[in-house]
Amino acid sequence: CSRLEDVVEILKNGQAPSIKLIPDKTSQRSSFSVDYAEVQGQAQAKRALEIAAAGHHNVLLNGSPGAGKTMMARALLSILPPPSEEDIIEITKIHSLSGETTEVITERPFRSPHHTSSSVALIGGGKIPRPGEISLSHKGVLFLDEIPEFPRVTLEALRQPLEDKVVNISRANQNSSYPADFMLIATQNPCPCGYALDEDRECTCSHLQTLAYSKRLSGPLLDRIDMIVTVQKIKHNLLLKEATGSEKSSDIRERVIKARKAQHERFKDASMSNSRMTNAQIKSLAKLDPEAKSFLDSSAKKLQLSARGYMKTIKVARTIADLADSENIKIEYIVEALQYRHK
To answer: pTM score, two decimals?
Structure first.
């Protein structure tokens, strides 16, 4: 239907015509701007992002300027599974509600708001409540580049949506709820000047400056991020060298899709992922080997993990096991998952 008159005629006749809501191009994958085969080195970061894509986990990339954090974050869409018809309808509804488009959106959204964005722009609301960036990234990726530069009050507003996957906007005369099931991918420098981890340049920040910078992200917010990854700079002589041994995004995506299917079968729900497991589901479905649980218990005490951090470690380990096509969580999967926790 291209005109309002057509809709009126349908309502008058009481018979809806045969309409295909989702165009045929949903089965096709668009050409992504960045492929992981183009990323030199960074094996650990690419591995972490593969785990994140497979289990729908939130990630914080920490490294010096120019290390490739933004490039790898933007390449994440190329390894995510294509959205289902239900996902496409939900994504299109939200974007239509915001007034951004009237077209069917067949790809997962990638939203990258600037750090000067207000809380209303990020979370949603206004005099006439509208969805914010976290809802516009529903079923896709919310990318916060240089996350410490965002106002603290704006970042703290992310805490509830990260847990509940929905945002509630309360106003004097109206209450609105918008879906917010997004993957958070954030980047940060290790210090204000950015070179605390750089082997070639000396950091000019004092200890107090670095400490103040690190405290821009609160403990409760960091606790809600599943994986924190350090990204090292690549040597200059390797930048123009032809990539060898780097997998294409299409190959990684096949493993991600296989791991997602294992999760759908486990939860009997095509919309569920490991990151959304409840405590009851973890107890009944995670399948921790006894030695893996014993190692996690002792490590959690040494690393002073919170209860949330303990459970998130199991969720990440479950995704690693799914990628390895393993029914149980073994001790090596717990070891790898613990590497991504905030120290």
So the answer is: 0.88
